[in-house]
Amino acid sequence: LCRGGLAERLCRLQNRERSAISFWRHQCLSDDKIPPDKSGVLIVKILEIFEECTIQVAICQQLEQSPATLSPEDAVINAEEPILKVLFTRETAAHLKSRPQDVIHIYPPWQKLLLQNADVPVIMNTYFSQKVLLSEHSEAREKTYGLTKMLIRKNIISLAQTFRLDDVDDKSHQEFSDNQVPCAPQTHNNGDSKWHPLALSAVNDSLLEMVESQGAVGWREAQVQVVIQRVYCLPAREGYRSHTQGNKPLCAASVTNSDPPNVRLCLLVQDAYGMFSEVQLQSLSSTDNIEQYCRRWEGKSCCLAGIKILQRTTRGRALGLFSLIDSLWPPVVPVKVPGQSQDSEMMTTNLPPPSFCYILTVQSGEIHVEVDEEEQISNLYQPPAVHGLKEILRIDGCNERCSFWAQVLYRRLQTKHSVPIDQREMLLFVTDSTLQNVVHGIPKVVAVSVTASCVLSMEIIEALSAGSRLVFFKDALWGNGRIICVERTVLLLQKPLLCSAAGADLSELTGPVRLDELDSTTQASSVCALRGTVVGVNESTAFSWPTCNRCGNGKLEVCPQDRELLYCNQCSEVVTTPVLKMQLEVFLSCPSRSQSTVKVKVWHEISAALFVLLTMLLFLQTYEVQSVLGKEVGLLNCYVHSITSHPNCVALEEIVLL
Fold it and tell me: Which residue range or ranges hold the DUF4503 domain (predicted)?
């Protein structure tokens, strides 16, 4: 705040005001009594309570006296006593916990506001208010009521109607826009508020208006209509584990974690004014498939109710969320402009991107999301724009969301021992026809980093374990030369029904997949093809072990009946022809990296026939290294572990593509 400015002075005034109110309430509690009556104290009896624009409005009857011998029930309503409309702030209302029939003492400096064309005065500045308990019967009633939370009716006031931006023909809505609140001195104990025109629960089309009118406590009856732009899952926070109700959650990124964290189904919604909100729904079980929700809900209009505000976040605090919002901005169709007549031309260009977003969640475990799945796709919906990998690699921006359809060739879990398994990243090496057809300048295979915050469905994990698959990456993040799957990225086995290809070449691969050969541009944590000549063998690291020829189990035991045979516990059978596996490090001379020492970790089961002779000699323990030196190798598919300049060395490991 600018020193000496109006904002700083207002902030100091508000701080002094809060301090004065807190001190006054503390003094009342410590004295354990109501402050003594004095001139200027306003005594009212509450007839009805409702909430409007986050302010609690109490229709009250003014009392001349409130004798200590009378209970609030004994204070009979007198038709001659004046009717008042008393306004309490949210904090004051929470402190009073008022109900109809309660007697309230309002201490100065309260103020009376006389409205033009209105017969009922409005009482404001009611910070110094105290509820009066005048008898044992009242105290007992207070204890009983204190156990149950009173439901306060909330009146939704449309800003468009307040400022008469829309033509409203309904008489009740005319009264609604004119702020004519009936203040008859009558009590509606049955809770039926249909007599009040403001109690009509109309469907709103503005998230911001709903939030401002209902406040952080949320809304139950009120509904807001929005369009579902995206459906995804987020890892559930610790505080929301209680909503799972025993369901097993969807699996997260780690494919080895036996107890994956809970995940919540989330919606990114947009209203008619272009404002976004993230709605966090229920936790998902392992049987739920995120793909079905994407197909059924994305692009459809829905009505939200039973929502409360979890957080108001900004661009600086939620870069991932706003990168997704930016990919959906500007809107594809004209949106309403707050404060302007909707008859005027609505805007789609030169609109500033949203700077804040409300995170909404369930209220008391209950939520009502009404999606009309039979309805046509909304014109406001923006399907993911699908690009070829070649086009994505040429994007100049940073933190750009991108969607693509690619073949997964190889997956690798990062092996940082200091990081827990469920928090490790997974690398997926992918390609498509746009990369395979490139001659030079662009890699034929790119790495996609899947972070632990990216939730993968069990269907995706099982598909990747089975073999190479075509996977649709929706809303991945591109920046600094990397493609990253983060929160709000969704991996699907089928392309969405609606997606914008933007002229990209999305044809499937027809021939064998080619990798880039090892050269001076190869980087660590990539895959490449390798050819060269054997110049050395690291004998100290060579070892071999037998495996089951049926299931591949590498932990065979000696057969109890015949100690010359091996036994497999997984198959429960004797292994007569075990498959011998072997690990061996060899040094190669590669023309493409003539100045570097190339060290390759080779596995016998996956090695080419060029290493069969070397393997047999090692098993028999009667080999001579000279017999394999000078042998020509490959093309071997390898993963690049590291590249160092001092010493100049490239460390690789032979791999098998999915």
Answer: 270-657
Q: What is the pLDDT of residue 150?
A: 62
Rounded Cα distance between 618 and 620, Å, is: 5
pLDDT of residue 451: 92
- Picking from 313, 204, 335, 219, the residue whose alpha carbon sits closest to that of residue 268 is 313
Token pair for residue 356?
């804040």
pLDDT score recorded for residue 581: 78
* Cis amide leading into 330 (omega within 30): yes
DSSP 3-state of 161: helix
3-state secondary structure 232-301: EEEECCHHHHHHHCCCCECCCCCCCCCCCCCEEEEEEEECCCCCEEEEEEEECECCCCHHHHHHHHCCCE
Record the tokens describing residue 154, joined without a space. Answer: 């909330």
Measured CA to CA in angstroms, residue 104 lies from 61, 214, 450, 451 at distances of: 10, 25, 60, 57
Tell which CATH classification among 2.40.50.140, 1.10.10.10, 3.30.470.20, 3.40.50.300 matches the domain 6-22+38-65+81-131.
2.40.50.140
Nearest residue to 618 via CA among 562, 563, 538: 538
pLDDT for 175: 40
Which CATH number does 202-236+262-331+353-382 carry? 2.40.50
Dihedral sign, CA of 389, 393, 395, 399? positive
Q: Is 210 helix (H, G, I), strand (E, B) or coil?
A: helix
Cis peptide before 108 (omega within 30 of 0): no
Q: Between the CA of residue 253 and those of 73, 96, 494, what are the distances in Å? A: 62, 49, 19
Tell me how far CA of residue 274 lies from CA of 206, 317, 380, in angstroms: 9, 20, 9
Bridge-based pairing state of the strands 446-450 and 426-431: antiparallel
Residue with tokens 């997926």: 428
Tokens 């016998």 appear where? 604
Q: How would DSSP label each residue in 416-459?
A: -TTS-GGG--EEEEEE-HHHHT--SSS-SSEEEEE-TTS---HH
Domains 6-22+38-65+81-131 and 526-654 belong to one CATH topology: yes
Structural tokens at position 427: 């690398």
Domain residue spans in the chain?
6-22+38-65+81-131, 202-236+262-331+353-382, 389-492, 526-654
- Give the separation between CA 351 and CA 325, rounded to whole angstroms: 14
Q: Residue 585, exposed/middle/buried by CB under 10 A (0-12, 13-18, 19+)? A: middle
526-654: CATH topology is OB fold (Dihydrolipoamide Acetyltransferase, E2P) (2.40.50)
The domain 389-492: what is its CATH number? 2.40.50.140
Contact 613, 649 (CB under 8 A): no
Listed as ranges, residues in the chain with pLDDT below 70 are 30-38, 66-80, 134-151, 161, 164-202, 214-221, 237-261, 285-288, 338-349, 364-368, 372, 415-422, 496-498, 500-507, 604-627
Whole-number Å distance between alpha carbons of 256 and 421 = 7
